[in-house]
Design a protein that fits this description.
5-stranded antiparallel β-sheet, 20% strand, two-stranded antiparallel ribbon, signal
Length: 235
Amino acid sequence: MKFRLITCLLLLINLACYANVNYHSADSTIHKKIKHAQRKIVYHITYPRESIKGYKPEFDNCFYTNRFTAAQRLKKYPFSVATKILAISYVGLPKNPNIIIDSAGFPKTSEEPDSIGGIIIENGHLRYDNVKQAKVLTREQLEKFSDIIFNYGYSGMKNYLITALPGCFEPRNSIVFLDKNDNVIDHLDICFACKASESGSEQINVGTDCKQKYDMLKAFFINVGVPYGTRKYDQ
């Protein structure tokens, strides 16, 4: 009887461990710490906004908060430490890259400037080889851009945020922050095709990802004279 009890206990422990391993290995999404008053939050589990009690689709719309003044916004990093700020567009990843086989037998893409996708920063400086358009932003334009990223949030459930990795990320547009010697301090890269962004330092982003946020950013790039990358046919 005693032997049978010990065997059952060991079996239960093994099953618990097995279930625990499956639970963690099945989760590959990166999340921020989240809070919600109506349920106990279990970390590392995705809670879509749609699953929250009382959720309505209109809660995803962008709502203007007017939380920060222009002076307050431009005192934030990296606006506060940049001497010059650019809006640029550049070549994306080519659909049919020229495949070259190196000496080790591995394929590699051509390093011709017009086939290199993404922003290129070399020795701390922006390379313009594959840049399509570049505009130095005025004070008025910086106020507009910072207004979009800092003052627009969800119209409902404002404090409920989920951050996940996009399925693709092939940016063609960036805001680049430079010092007085044209060294790149930071850059915010934006992919309008997949509605995602990332920065070199991870200290700046587009703010709350409300429904119209990327449409507003797209209009901003077009208005400052950097339309490449905002259209579906730009490659």
